[in-house]
Design goal:
- By secondary structure, the protein is mainly α.
- It has a domain of 157 residues.
- 73% of the residues lie in helices and 0% in strands.
- The longest helix has 40 residues.
- It starts with a helix and ends with a helix.
């Protein structure tokens, strides 16, 4: 009798499970508990040429916003500044001081100061007219690229690194360019100007870093020679030279001089 009851109960449960499986639950209404924004009010429907154009413009704008860090590194004064400050930290002999965030912050604000005249021109001639619907997106991008190329070529020409532009221009045009041929900045594409600018900035930054390195190198050599003459070969010279380098750097107001030199190196 008990076995029959158990078997009957199992059969009832299996039939109930099949019935539930055959009748799927009704879909729950969408609950906008997260308060997601309705993008249809911001982005026009891409049903005609105007809607497609506006959607593509928003897509390009979002893409540019994601590339801002790379643009900051490639087309501004940031590479030279951060490399010089990093070499200065190595020359002093304290690779952890100041921290990397401090150097990045200082480099960023100095970059903003150096790039302010160029950005003001870009805002006055490209960004503001574009926001006021006085020009198209393509024209605004061309004006922005022209000002950036002008800034980059000024640094290249001031450092005497015109051969970097010739290098990438010859590769892009697949022809040999004479040394006396003048570079037309307006016709030089960004794909040529940006790598030439970065290569020029690397050369300039390392030259400046070498000049900063020399006084600290002299102190290290003098301390090492003195310790060797006194027979203290087991004593690391860095332990003795570091306080003297810090003292020299502070007495000479080194941070002010280095930042002043960096600012004056840009034209």
């Amino acid at each position: 009798m008990g076995r029959r009851l158990i078997i009957a109960g199992l059969l009832a449960l299996s039939l109930a499970g099949r019935a539930n499986a055959q009748t799927p639950p009704a879909p729950r209404p969408f609950d906008n508990a997260a308060n997601l924004p309705d993008l249809t009010k911001l982005v026009p429907p891409a049903t005609d040429a105007k809607g497609v154009s506006a959607t593509l413009q928003i897509l390009v704008l979002l893409t540019v916003l994601t590339l801002i860090p790379s643009i900051l590194v490639m087309t501004t004064a940031f590479p030279r500044i951060i490399i010089v400050l990093a070499l200065l930290r190595q020359a002093v002999g304290a690779p952890q001081l100041p921290p990397g965030q401090v150097l990045l912050g200082l480099s960023l604000f100095v970059t903003i100061l150096v790039m302010t005249p160029t950005w003001r021109k870009v805002h006055a001639e490209a960004v503001a007219p574009y926001l006021d619907s006085q020009m198209g997106q393509a024209q605004a991008m061309d004006i922005t690229a022209a000002h950036l190329k002008e800034f980059m070529y000024r640094q290249i020409d001031q450092a005497g690194n015109d051969e970097d532009v010739y290098l990438f221009l010859e590769y892009a045009q697949d022809r040999e360019i004479a040394a006396e041929e003048k570079i037309d900045v307006a016709k030089t594409p960004l794909m040529v100007m940006i790598p030439a600018f970065m290569l020029s900035e690397l050369k300039t930054a390392f030259v400046m870093g070498f000049r900063i390195y020399l006084p600290f190198l002299v102190i290290d050599m003098v301390i090492a020679t003195i310790l060797l003459s006194m027979g203290m070969m087991m004593l690391p010279p860095v332990l003795i030279s570091l306080p003297f380098k810090l003292l020299l750097f502070v007495l000479a107001d080194g941070w002010h001089l280095v930042v002043e030199t960096i600012l004056e190196s840009f034209v």
